[in-house]
Amino acid sequence: MKCMFQENIGSVVMEVQENEFVCYTPPSEIPGTVRLSLLSDSGKRIQSDLLFEYIPDLLAHSLFPSSGPSTSSSEVAVRGEYLPLNGSVKCVFGGQDTTGLVMTSSYMRCITPVSRQVGTIPFSLRIGKIAVGTPLKYEFVEAPQVFGMIPSQGPAEGGTRVLLYGAGFDVGQGIRCKFGLEDESESMAQISSSTALHCISRPGKAQNLTIGIGNSVIGFTFTKTPFELLEVMRIFRVYPTKVPVNRDTQITIEENRVTNHYILLREPVGSFKKNMAMFRVPYHGLR
Fold this sequence. Notes:
single chain; mainly beta; Immunoglobulin-like; 8-stranded mixed β-sheet; 29 strands; rod-shaped; disordered C terminus; Plexin; IPT_dom; Ig-like_fold
């Protein structure tokens, strides 16, 4: 008994059990659907209504991004050829199968798994039970962690150089800073070492914002403690404008908005009034 795929004869049928056979397909140069039949040892052809489809060899050309954080899942775009639109395609990272969503015959999306280790692994696809190898690799990298910041507040006009200290800042992917979840104006971080980097605050209204560091490849990690943008104090008048150098002297400062987040010279020596606060100028002696 042999299998026939249209007019092509396959390998000898292997009988697994009663009424069940295994056929091995012959090669075909042309993709398409063929009718499956059986050919008995006596040469009698047993027709069937079963159809078999030859599909072109699936090809995967590129992954973007080709690296991502090991501690969380992220989306990867796969570009290729002959991706099946009507089949169940799985993405395989190393030996882990993950969700795959075919968008077109040349584009699909994959979700990366969480990995316990960093490093490069092979990438492949699986259609049903068929594994399709590719020459592509994917790299798991360590996501940056933030432990704290100095300072934790600055003027809403922006320009404050904020030191973030943590771990994993040397991922080599171009770390960027963003102030707040909805900030679309990312800026390049100034990396000092794997445990320290600086971000420059951007102008905005007075509010509390978490600082995110990362990029589109590894995602963004946000600080647990927010950075506080403060309304800028604009001084209208200071009096007296001259003080003796041989003793401490109390002065009064008037501005458009006195806020207790700002400390000028020393702590205020009196209670706040509307648009007014009093400070003590320390004794410095003659110079």
